[in-house]
Amino acid sequence: MDATPPVAAPAGSVPQHVAIIMDGNGRWATLRGRPRTVGHREGVKSVRRTVDECLRRGVKTLTIFAFSSENWRRPRAEVMVLMELFLVVLRGEVRRMNHNGVRLRVIGDRSAFSEKLQRRIVEAEQLTATNTALTLQVAANYGGRWDITQAMRRLLIETQAGHLNPAECDETTLAAFLSFPDVPDPDLFIRTGGEQRLSNFILWQSAYAELYFTDILWPDFDEAALGAALDDFAQRQRRFGHTGEQVESWVALNDRTK
Ligand code: IPE
Ligand code: IPE
Ligand code: MG
Prior knowledge:
CATH architecture: 3-Layer(aba) Sandwich
Order of helices and strands: EHHEHEHEHHEEHH
Strand content: 5-15%
Oligomer: single chain
Number of strands: 6
Number of domains: 1
Bound molecules: 3-methylbut-3-enyl trihydrogen diphosphate, magnesium ion
Shape: globular
CATH class: Alpha Beta
């Protein structure tokens, strides 16, 4: 094994990539005696706040779960409002995001979306493609298993065409076919809304993410709530299979050579 630490984020640092399961919109609205969809609309404000705060704090990639491949099971009316909201947000927010240097990308199986929505997504991605301040990845009709399966399917096609040797395919080969091979894996994985499960979000890429669960419902998630998650992350020691002592000695060495 190599002796050098696979340092992604030393203790005390800002995560380069934050992934969030934005959960609790429905309960937020129900608590107020309002329809669930009111919570989804309110949740858009939290997205805006979170994007701005990530920009301010120097997070380079933010991946947010907007609609899972399982969310089609919800009442039709709720699904329709969510799709409508997606369109409205794309129309209303993209200019501002572009102005702030945000590169927008939608991950997931978009073939299930209306043509209009698919067109909007492509336009937004093209408009913001060269921005570098923050990459915002919106997971829509996304599932972790879907991602691994579509990667495997494309890899099999390549091997069948003779472009890849199956005997030489390893983790790196498969990872190159996943939805976002060009950004580092998430360092911090946040779930709001009190549930402690992954709900089929970015499974492969989160293999070594630090998990953080908060009871705060997504529409209440603000700058302070994100700050608390980042502070918690900064206290963690990431070992990637090494021992705590190994990591401490590398940190000490790093401090001496600074
Ligand atoms: C998350 O909030 C948003 C989506 C899944 C689209 P929920 O709608 O799951 O809210 P709860 O969990 O029912 O409160
Ligand atoms: C996960 O939340 C999906 C999104 C936040 C978009 P859910 O609320 O759908 O998750 P489960 O079904 O409770 O696990
Ligand atoms: Mg939920």
